[in-house]
Write a structure and sequence with these properties.
By secondary structure, the protein is an all-alpha fold. About 70% of the residues lie in helices and about 0% in strands. It is built from 13 helices and no strands.
Length: about 220
């Protein structure tokens, strides 16, 4: 019986228990710190309930462990071990969707729908002086914070096009929606979920590029 229980104990359960011991905490202490019902934590540790990202984020904060380790221990398939592959996924919306499906962290269709809603909002914002000034003044600062990558190169090209005097107004609005999404960090997929934390920005870029192609613009 004990051997069977040991085999069925999920890695997340073993990991959390070891961290509780290391930090001299009980399960009840952890529940109080995280604001999570102790019965919920018990089910997670015993493999009877899949932890949510919000649970893992709280465990990370109070047990001094990275989200990356917790997510892997929680058994989210497709997360981790794909960093080399992920380096080039931002050029294809289909490949981004595949990564989301494999990760099991987010529903691709629901995530895309939320990003589309945000883009509509930012398209309207791009029509205001405030939105325009943000795009002109804050873009390079945000790029400096994020670093480099294929979708960043797309954004740089989009920014140059946005600032062009000959760019049609309709095209500017579409470009502006993607640029504002990036600058304002809507974070539908939280950045702390490395290496997929910027996938929502990549999805936003691809959605706008698709619309530009459909409307016969080029960016």
């Amino acid at each position: 019986m004990a051997k069977s229980d040991q085999i069925n104990t999920p890695p997340i359960g073993d990991l959390i228990r070891s961290l509780l011991k290391k930090n001299s905490l009980s399960m009840r202490n952890l529940a109080t710190l995280c604001g999570i019902d102790s019965a919920t934590i018990s089910r997670i540790l015993n493999g009877k309930q899949q932890p949510k990202l919000t649970h893992l984020k709280l465990f990370s904060e109070h047990l001094d462990i990275s989200m990356d380790q917790l997510i892997k221990a929680a058994g989210f398939e497709g997360y981790g071990g794909k960093r080399e592959r992920n380096a080039g996924i931002h050029d294809s919306l289909d490949e981004i969707m595949e990564i989301l499906r494999e990760s099991r962290l987010f529903d691709p269709e629901a995530t895309t729908a939320r990003i589309k809603q945000e883009l509509v909002k930012y398209e309207q914002y791009a029509q205001t002086d405030e939105g325009h000034n943000l795009i002109c003044n804050e873009f390079h600062l945000k790029v400096g914070q994020v670093g480099v990558g294929p979708f960043i190169e797309h954004l740089k090209t989009m920014h140059i096009r946005y600032c062009g005097e000959d760019t049609p107004d309709r095209e500017k609005l579409l470009l502006g929606s993607a640029l504002l999404y990036f600058i304002l960090s809507a974070d539908i997929i939280p950045d702390y979920l490395f290496p997929i934390g910027y996938l929502d920005d990549a999805i936003a870029v691809q959605l706008v590029l698709n619309r530009l192609n459909e409307e016969e613009f080029t960016a």
